[in-house]
Amino acid sequence: MKTLYVMKKKVYSLLLVGAGCLVLPLSAQRIDTTHITLCPAESKAAVRDVRLTGQLTTRGNSDFRQLRDLCWQLARLDLSAARVEHLPDNALHSHHRLQQVVLPERLKSIGRQAFFACDSLQGVLRIPPMVREVQTAAFSGCARLTEISLPADSLQRIGDFAFSRLTSLRRVRVGAVRPPVCAPTAFEGIDLRRVRLEVPRGAERAYREAEGWKMFFSPAEPLPEVVTPVVIPRPALLTLTAGEPFRFDRKFSIEAAPELNNERTHCLRILEERSEARVQTGAKGARIRLLLQPGLENEAYRLSVSRDEICIRGGSAAGVFYGLMTLDQVMASTPVGRCASIPQMAVVDGPRLALRELMVDPARIFRPIEDLKAFVAEMARYKYNALHLHLVDDQAWRVEIKAYPRLVEQGAQRVGMDDMQMPISGYYTQQELRELVAYAARYHVQVIPEIELPGHEVAAIHCYPQLTCGGKHVPIRTTCGVSNELLCPGEPFVYEFLGKVFAELAAIFPSPYVHLGGDEAGMPPLAAWTECDKCRALKRRLGIERNVREDNWQLQKYLFDCVIDTLRTKHGKTPMFWYETDFREIQPGCITFAWRHGLTETAIRAARANGARIMLCPGEYCYFDYPMAAGDMPEVNWGMPVNPLQRTYSLDPAWGMGTDFEKTNLAGVAGTLWSECIPSAERLYYQAYPRALALAEVAWTPQAVRSWPDFARRLRHVQTDQMRRGICGSQAW
Ligand code: ACM
Ligand code: ZN
Known about the structure:
Blueprint: E1 4-7, E2 12-17, E3 20-25, E4 29-33, H1 41-46, E5 49-52, H2 63-69, E6 76-78, E7 86-87, E8 100-102, E9 109-110, E10 123-126, E11 133-134, E12 145-150, E13 157-158, E14 171-174, E15 181-182, E16 196-198, H3 204-209, E17 237-240, E18 246-247, E19 251-256, H4 261-274, E20 278-279, E21 287-292, E22 301-305, E23 309-314, H5 317-331, E24 341-342, E25 345-349, E26 355-360, H6 369-381, E27 386-390, E28 392-393, E29 396-397, H7 406-411, E30 413-417, E31 420-425, H8 430-442, E32 446-453, H9 458-463, H10 492-508, E33 513-517, H11 527-531, H12 533-542, H13 552-571, E34 574-578, E35 591-594, H14 600-609, E36 613-616, H15 619-622, H16 645-650, H17 659-664, E37 666-673, H18 681-688, H19 691-700, H20 708-724
Parallel strand pairs: 4-5, 5-6, 6-8, 7-9, 9-11, 10-12, 11-13, 12-14, 13-15, 14-16, 19-20, 19-21, 21-23, 26-27, 26-37, 27-32, 32-33, 33-34, 34-35, 35-36, 36-37
Antiparallel strand pairs: 1-4, 2-3, 17-25, 18-24, 22-23, 22-25, 28-29, 30-31
Helix pairs in contact: 4-5, 6-8, 10-13
Zinc ion (ZN) binds at residues 469, 488, 490, 529, 532, 534-535.
């Protein structure tokens, strides 16, 4: 075995990150060895140039997982001599720095999404001579590739979206005389008038006629008609009716009340994306009408389609918006995601649950504000109405608080998340968050901020040590897991701090809810409060007699009650928090999240006994950061179980408790995306979808019309539509 590290003189560069700077070895080495798994962690973090020659591993913490997740600066990868026949699914998924790759000479297939969104890959991509198959979305979004060279005879199949959205592509050279089987979507999202297809002499006629290739020669075919609408979440009632369809290839008008201007704009966007409609103000004849209908429930809508009119009536602007989201999916129900017409129909629809939430965690790995906006636009398609932002944790503080500038100066940047030794930095300014809130409101999505207390607060404690017992100086955490450092309830500064933080948040986020965390601050962390003089003094004042760990829960309750009172009286907010079994008394009207595996029933009982409401996000159904199948991403974590799609779909949000519980206590459902193992925007979507589609149906659709086989059929179509937009969820179902 040959292991050769060509070490240049170690060059340390100053990398400016946010307001501070981190010292990183930036261009230290080239690695030429058999397996990347043999290399030391710091080499993997610094390497830009890798040549591997061994029989590379593909499962678990494999060579490919390490190339992708640990070699974060990797720019050139030479696998020409590596012994690999199948490049695994997601091999280099969304590696945004990879510029060049030489594929293994003996390669036979390239897995799903192997180079998905590797958008720095540039120049010519040469597929080696023995490759038989390029699977779904393998190179989708590699927007800087200019040329693809496909081998002569071995290639048998090019999968859906394999080379989609290659916007710089100018030449495709195919060596095969007989056109390989090619999915019609393989080159989707590319202006093929700008791409030259080169095929062997005499083979052009066959390519002209072959599925997947013919569009290189001929103009686009006319748009098809929708026959069977495909919608997720499934509407309560959708009835197709007889008669001529509504055609979009003619002039028509949109009529909308002034208070529905936002929905009118969405309507225009949908028509442009899904049809060749020519909207003309005042056009006579066909029309789309958007109206508010008093008496309909808040988010409910009715959609009717006749030959000359599409009419959407909503109980509110949100209801009209959801009617439009249904219309959008109806219009997308063709093989090309656009249509010439839709059939006559009547839809009666409205949500089952009031709060339909996804939680994103930019604390562990930051996501820029633009990523959040794009995420909101996507989730709104499926009628989610709340984005929950986990803004702080032990690993970072991500929101600008003007009263405490050190929080983002010192708490928003670090190097490393477990074995991923990369710089992770960034925070949201208040202005950015206001823009996000306004943007999300246009999609009828509210943004709910979360500030953790009393645990998961190491980043804040790092910046302001007086927040913790004994004023200890603690470093920002660079690994997952639970810290023993808590806020000190005996320290007056803690109340002043939280008061100012929540006041600034209240001025940014109009949502009626604020999330206070509250998770995982039990045993052993609460031991800190037993040893702290200030905590002991507070216990004496409160009449908590025993200075033992169990009684520290009463201190936690005291801290929560103080914050809850402030939120309610000063800011008119409804507090939310993660349910813990030892948190026995919940203030009536609060909302607790049932999240722990196997403890949903306990959490429901506690909420009911206390007159509180509950959000369901049991880990075994709703934690989308867990892998969806064995071997799926993330391949390496700290022991998360597999959480399959069908399990998510099977969730009954009423938990068998009946309609009384559903009406009185159940606030909604949430899907979580804890981000320790989610290092790119594309991987956020990969984890979220398609489980977020299943949960959308859990939250929206009446139990009586839900069916897994029917959902699975619709899902294929909706996932295809997502891929057209460059959103590629896990296919491992
Ligand atoms: C949690 O997953 N710690 C709420
Ligand atoms: Zn203390």
